[in-house]
Predict the structure.
Amino acid sequence: MRTPLLTWMQQRHGVAHSSEVRAAGYSAWTVRAAIDAGMLERVRRSWLVSADCSPQRRAAAEAGGRITCVTAAREKGLWAPDADETHVAVAPTASRNTRAGLQVHWAQGPLPVARFTTEEPLLNVLFHVARCLDPIEAAAVWESALRKGSTTLEQLRRTQWGALRPAQVLETVGALSDSGVETTFIRIALACGAEVRQQVVIDGHPVDALIGERLVVQLDGFEFHSEAKDRRRDLRQDARLVLLGYTVLRFDYQQIMFDARYVMETLMNAIAQGLHLASRR
């Protein structure tokens, strides 16, 4: 039978510090009865967990912290890369002795967190993501939060991050959200001396860029982790354009933003072969 205490615990993802339980009005006798009945378990002396607690949150409680970084991002419904370890935020003064299966974060995020809080604020999660992952993956997590509506670009820009890595990720995400991928591609194409038109409608569908008369460029943007159905849609669109007599080049976010030389060389080779000219068809 679910008691008021268990309902309260469930609302906190099945984990709470005993001081918070007492502050909520539950007596030591009530807690002891729940433990004796097997409905609650005490870990690390002062932390309580119920059956609703995930293994990741339990591991965080055993370390005296809370889940953060990619572990918390996934629980918040954001895209995040797979991780073998549970990422846990602890106080800066916490022990440096880590245990197997944990990635411990001691740095302080931009938002202050109460000592026994079990929930990491989103901005702190993004802070640790920026410091922990490579720039491409970190920006993907941040952009996922923007697309989900969990935060806004303005909020991210106004936050005092206090560290270099989050500021660098913000610069990348800011460029993305302001159509930075398209802008960067146009700059690369112009450096090749190409004549570029954007958002040209071909057979009732817009393409990202058209060079000359027959060279179509499609930009996958930031969602390199898109679902299979999205990928199939892109492939169908490419095939349709090829059958109409166009050459299609497709570049992703990482190539545009971090491998401009490859993009430029590919464009120049295509132009050298006259693939942008209708007369070659």
Q: What stands out?
A: The mean pLDDT is 88. The two ends are 74 Å apart (CA to CA).
